[in-house]
Amino acid sequence: MPFIKLSNNMLNFLLKQRHLLLGLLIGTAAFINSMQVCFKKNQNGSIIYSDAEGYYLYLPSVFIYGNFEDYTVRTYGNQLKPEGKIKNKYTCGVAILQAPFFILADRFVSQSNKYERNGHSDPYVVSILFAGAFYLGLGIFMLSKLLATRVSFTVSSIALLCLFLGTNLFYYSAQRPGMSHVYSFFLFSAFVYSVHYFLKKPTIVCAGVMGLVLGLIIVVRPTNVMVGFIYFAYDITSWKDVKDRLFIFFNRPLLLLTLLVAMFLMFFPQMLYWHEVWGGWISYSYKGESFIYWKNPKLYDVLFDKMNGWLLYSPIALFALVGMPSLIKRDKFFGWTILGILCVATYSFASWWAWWFGGAFGHRCYVEFYALLAFPMAYAFQRILKKGFILRLSTGIIVALLCYYNLALSDLYAYTAPWDGPDWTWASYWDKVERIF
């Protein structure tokens, strides 16, 4: 019958597009939530503010004001203004990713008499909300396709939904998409995705894409360059494979040249800015800030302290740690590399002068690393789903409670920064927890 045939065709289409649909679902959910936070809870002024404004300011200064001296700034504490030039300490990677959405908003404002063309009115805010949701959805889509080569779609969907609903990925994509983390989450996903396809077909185009992504990762947050080691570990089965992978570039130098040129193209705008404003092609703009705890890292605090402890505020991430042995067992080099990157990242966070990274919901620097932790988390859920009914049921209840805990603290209770400093005590934390349960 025609109706049955049409239904079967529709079902086949949905099955083929299930990874894209998952990305659309999560991206749309993030955008709807961010719109509610901004305009129903009147928090639109906080989207382009503080660090988020620092990342964003490159766009209005270039496209609206045409200079780096005289443009609207709300958060002067994050910039310096000697000799008439506003020195922005933040790198421009986030602005590069936001640029297409900003340009559309700016064109809309230019043709409208309703909004002020200052880079801060509502259309510009909406452009950032949409950018964050877009890159979140795209990152989820790519991770879903990658995980499908290892686990079932059901398992991968559970893992990705848990990362979205149960960690501060939700907060930094659905409520503070102006911060750098959702963009880095997308870029981490895109880098693994580009490595996957480069290894299947090492063409100049694939090498260029991989270089562009890695260059953007560096210009968004330079310390995230460590994710580049994934290239030497993805789908590796022996040390000989590591050597062979390195020789892909030595045997075909044009691929290496393409990769390096693409990386440079992404970093060159930042060099131009540094030369124009800071006076040198390479500058360290975080003057007075450094890794002062390098010899005495605050490891326990980064993981468990009341001030943004990662596992205190995103305890569902423990499933990823539990799944790490399963990943290592099935893919030794990839698993150990992810664990190594996570350890190095944790050590660097714990060494930074502000190990809690300011007013944040949970330890925000881990958000991008969820793109890597999706793999061990998927293996953890795959193993649980093979167990008995009681374990599956109890795990489901725990997961639901942990997702509620995250959503209630960050959204339902409406977290407002900062939950840090001398006034933020364990009593303060437990008071919030008691109010949501």
Total number of domains: 1
Q: How many E strands? A: 2
Shape: globular
Give the class from helix and strand content and strand pairing. Answer: mainly alpha
Number of helices: 19
Give start-end ranges of low-pLDDT stretches: none
Kindly state the mean pLDDT as a whole number?
92
Radius of gyration, taken over Cα atoms and rounded to an integer in Å? 22 Å
* Main sheet characteristics: 2 strands, antiparallel
Order of helices and strands: HHHHEEHHHHHHHHHHHHHHH
**What fraction, in percent, of the residue positions are helical?**
55-70%
Kindly report how far apart the N and C termini lie: 52 Å
Neighbour order of strands in the largest sheet: 1-2
Fraction of residues in β-strands: under 5%
Q: How does this model look, in words?
A:
By secondary structure, this protein is mainly alpha-helical. The protein is built from 19 helices and 2 strands. The chain has one domain (21-436). The protein has helices at 2-16, 18-40, 51-56, 58-65, 93-110, 122-147, 153-166, 169-174, 181-200, 204-220, 239-251, 253-278, 299-304, 310-313, 318-330, 332-351, 370-385, 389-412, 426-436, and strands at 79-80, 87-88. Strands 1-2 form a two-stranded antiparallel sheet. A hairpin with a 6-residue loop joins strand 1 (79-80) and strand 2. Helix 2 packs parallel to helix 7, helix 5 (93-110) crosses helix 6 (122-147) and helix 6 (122-147) packs antiparallel against helix 7. The protein is globular and about 65 Å long. The termini are far apart.
